[in-house]
Every structure is written in C-alpha cells, then in structure tokens.
Amino acid sequence: MKSPISFLVLTAGIAFADPSIQRATLDDRVVVSVPVATNRVTTLSFPGPIAAIDAAGVTADPKVPGQFQLAHTKGASFLSVRALARKAATNLNVRWNKRTYVFELVESDAPLLSLNLEAPAAPTVAPAPEVRPTRLLALLDKAKAFPLLKQQHPESVADVDFTTYDAKPLVSDFDDYEIRIEEAFRFNPEDTLVFRVVVTNKTDAPLRYWPDSFAVRAGNRLYHQSISDASGAVPPLGSSIVYFAITGTPDGGRNELSLKNAFTVLVERMAAKRSPQTAVQPAPVQSPARLRSLIDEARAFPMLKRHHPEVVADVEVVAYADHATDFNDYEVRLDEGYHFSRDDTLVLRAKLKNKTARPITYQGFALRAGNRVYPQAASHAPGVIPPNGESTIYFAVTGTPDRWRDEQNSVLVERTTADK
C-alpha cells in the first residue's frame, strides 16, 4: 500500500502600485487635474492643516444641491470629494502655507481614490562667489569713478546696477551722528553691493568708529561689510564720505539684494575716553559655566521666587506684552527678560513659532536694542522649531559688543543655511 503524499501549495501575494493612489509635489503655478467618481470618495492629503477652501458648485451640505460634495473638518490636513452629477467639472482652490493651489475636479469612471501631496522642496541657496580683496578694491574704485566711466567708457559699467537716493534720502539717525546713503551700486557677478555714504557728526567732539565695522540692515537681516574705504574719524560738526561693500550673506550664500531695499547703515563706534566723573566700568568677563548658571536661574525663576526668594532678590524681571517680530515663515515673541545687574547680563525668554509644515533649524540669537545688535553670550535652545509648532528658548547677552557695560534694554535668529 502506497503512502499518501500531501502537497502543500503556498500562494505568494505580490503588491502592485495602484494607479488610483498617487503622490504629487505641491506647485502653486500648476493646475492639478483630479478625476472624481459618483460612487467613490477621493481624498486629498496635504502636508499640514488647510487654511481655506474655495470652489464653485461644491457643497458640504447634502441638502444643498451642487456638482460635487466636499467633506472637510476645520484644522484638518485633508479633504474628501465625490461627484454628484455625470460630466461635472469645477475648480477647487486650497489655501495652504500662505499659497493657493488649484485643482481641477472632473467626474470620471476611473477616479483617483487618494492624492498625497508633498511640500515643495526648499529652495537651494547658491553659494556666494569668492571675491578676492584685490577684486573688491577694484569694485570700490569703479564705484568712485562711475560718473566718469559712464560718460567716457560706458561699456565698462554696462552691467552695473546703479541708484541714487537724492529724491528719497535713506538716513539713519543715531542722535549725535547720522549716516546718509547717497548712492548704491550692484555688481551682480560678484554678488556685491557698494555704498557711498556720508557720516555726519552732530557734536563738537571728534567721532571715532571702527573702519571695518560697517553693516547694512535690509528687512530683518544684517550684512557685514566685505571691504571699506573709511578714515575711522569724523571731525566735530563735520562730515566724511565713506565707501564700503557687502558681499553674499553671513552664511556664505548669495544675497541677491535689490537696490530698491530701504537700507539702514550701522557702524560700531569706538569706546569713548571718559572722565573719572563719568567713567563706565568694563563689563565683567563671564565664564561659560557662570552664564549657564544665570540661564538656569532664569528658567527656574518662579520656583526660586516662591521657595528661595533670597537667591533672586537682586534680579529684575520685565514681562513683555505683544512684543513679537514676524519673519514670514516664523515668528519670535519675547516673553520675559531677567536682568542680573552684578553680572551685567540680560537673560531673555522667547517663544519661536514655526508657521510652515517643515522643521526650521537655527544656530544662534542676537538682541537688537535701538540701533545696536548684541550677539548672544550663551543660550538654552533645541536648535529646531517643529513643523507648525512652537519652541521656548533662553539666551543671554552680556555687556556691549565693545565690552563696555550697557544697562539698556526684537530678537534676531540666525537660521542655518539649509532652511533658507
């Protein structure tokens, strides 16, 4: 008698990509066609919460007639549509991340069931060209000789953008002195702007400044000089002409700055010699450990104030109401400041709000008070703001950029190159 033989049959399941499920990158310059059926639901998924939806012939109420039925919950990052009539067609405009994306809905027997939309790729930042000092000097000379070159050798300055501010002067007033921009030149191949400015001293004492400290503020960004032709001094009640250039951005990318910007020019003054009666003490030098300790005290301030008030008895606290700075895709809100007078250190608590659907990374902070910028001495910050999220940070500034004490009281955030 033969032994029975058993056959085991294994069935392997092979998954194929379903054409009714698609992915697409969002592009506000392109109309996306979406086939929709009467007996199926099509879902459009966005990278983040949808801000608004506009459409014609689309209803969210089954009792209201229309060509398409829409289902969407406020704050959700997806919506679903279904055709209500044969041969129906309309456009659906969706507002997301401050841009409008257009979809053409068309009734079809071969509908998309799911369209997963991805955020556009972050624009790449072209590196700034490497401009040697000799070339920068040549650009300064070309700017100085521009009227003559324009008249006698126009071909040598044919690719130079030029503007004068005679009709609408750009003046930065700093009480005892002012800086007026007279002319600006853009040399596009070198991504370099050259400025001709007049520094006017409004006092009867000499004005002295660091010749290599000129900077330009355009919007919320600060661009430091790449070269200058400046004497470093302005006589009492006198004026001095200065030429200086900025090249690229602080993180090495191209600035692509237009001459139509409302520029502000800054310069770092030298510490004035003071009489014994008005002498200002140099700022104390703080160790990294001491700065971390001050930040920790600020972070624990409510608890210390309640349980150990003697520890923070000499700390002055200031609450800032509605003190926010908007940078388009993110916002910085200043919450509180803690002044440690003995250390001449100000610790600030701020909240960073990401208004986009992708993470924003950063690498440092600075405080702008009046027309001065104070870089951080230390910080407690994660370095990233989550998509559509918030992050609380603490950072400290000590003394002034020229190391003198300063008891004066917008936060600037230096983002990393990848996020720009």
Structure description:
There is one protein chain. The chain is 9% helix and 41% strand. It is mainly beta and 420 residues long. It folds into 3 domains: 21-118, Sandwich (Immunoglobulin-like), CATH 2.60.40; 133-266, Immunoglobulin-like; 281-419, Immunoglobulin-like, CATH 2.60.40. Strand 6 and strand 7 form a beta hairpin. It starts with 20 loop residues before the first strand and ends in a 5-residue tail after the last strand. Residues 1-15, 274-280 and 401-409 have low confidence and may be disordered.
Quick structural summary:
The protein is mostly beta strands.
**Assembly state here?**
single chain
List the uncertain runs.
1-15, 274-280, 401-409
How would you sum up the global shape? flat
* Number of helical stretches of at least 4 residues: 4
Secondary structure tally: strands: 31
Query: Beta-strand level of the residues, as a percent range?
Result: 35-45%
- Supply the CATH architecture of the largest domain: Sandwich
Compute the average pLDDT: 84
Strand order within the widest beta sheet: 1-10-3-7-6-5
Q: Based on helices, strands and strand pairing, what is the structural class?
A: mainly beta
Output the CATH topology of the largest domain: Immunoglobulin-like
Q: Span between N and C termini? A: 81 Å
Radius of gyration: 30 Å
Question: What level of helicity do the residues show?
Answer: under 10%
CATH class of the largest domain: Mainly Beta
Q: Could you give a short account of the major beta sheet?
A: 6 strands, mixed
Number of separate domains = 3
